[in-house]
Amino acid sequence: MPRFYIDAPLATGQLLDLPAEVAHHIHVVRLAPGDALTLFNGTGGQYEAELVEVGKKRATAEIKAFDGREAELPYPVTLAQALPEGTKMDWIIEKAVELGVTAVQPLAARRCVVRLSAERAQKKLEHWQGVIVAAAEQSGRNRLAALAGPVDFRDWLGTPATGPRLLLSPRATASLVEWGSQAGPQPVTLLVGPEGGFTDEEEDAAVRAGATMVSMGPRVLRTETAALAAVAMLNGLWGGM
Q1: 222 DSSP assignment
Q2: What is the pLDDT of residue 241?
Q3: pLDDT tens digit sequence for 60-74
Q4: For the domain with range 77-238, which CATH number is right: 3.40.309.10, 3.40.190.150, 3.40.1280.10, 3.50.50.60?
Q5: Could you give the 3-state DSSP secondary structure of residue 193?
Q6: Rounded Cα–Cα distance for residues 38 and 225 (Å)
């Protein structure tokens, strides 16, 4: 069933004029009056609705019932991802949301190729927010992952932590699987470096700030692979798949 995010209050019995972008999508995929669709607004649960009217530029739906289902992980996972080059961040955010990540924190590290001005950062945030919405619609999540603005890695290390911070590093002696098996489900933040990884100095600073270095195994993973593999590992260890 088609699912759409609606940034507005929703209620059973409501007759709703759908946003222009949603109406356009409905027109493109040739949905018709009487077709069913699912709406959610990110506050939890979803609403079953029926199309009442469909035009080229507008569509109206009647909300029939509320469904309280959730598809969230039972433990919050924050992805603190150093900015990769090109469109890799789009891929990372999309797949991380599909895997259940609760929050995304872009980081500016020493080896980051991408350097964002304030204007570019704002445009990127708007684009990444759209990626989060689309991934939630596709994956069946009824809550949107939180997205923070890019910050310098060392500045971020000084911010309060909610749960352990795990730094993925080939220098680590303990594996993520070993750590996760012993620690059990809990809020956690995964720190992933850019192409080339964090520098030794950055890793040492993170450890001094309380982070734990963990390994992903004997193979060196690309930055766009490491984050997703780590979230999938926690899903497998702690549940949520």
Answers
A1: P
A2: 65
A3: 999 999 999 999 999
A4: 3.40.1280.10
A5: coil
A6: 32
Name residues whose C-beta falls within 8 Å of residue 200's C-beta, 6 or more positions apart in sequence. 171
Encode pLDDT of 172-223 as tens digits: 999 999 999 999 999 999 999 999 899 999 999 999 999 999 999 888 899 9
Superfamily of domain 3-67: Hypothetical PUA domain-like; domain 1 (2.40.240.20)
Residue type, 184: G
Which helix or strand (DSSP H or E) is residue 121 part of?
A: helix 118-139
Helices 88-99 and 223-238 pack at an angle, to 10 degrees, of: 0
**Cα-based angle 177, 183, 184 (whole degrees, multiple of 5):** 90
pTM: 0.94
Nearest one of 78, 128, 127, 126 to 99, comparing CA atoms: 78
Q: Please name the helix (run of DSSP H) or strand (run of DSSP E) that holds residue 204, with its range, or none.
A: helix 200-208
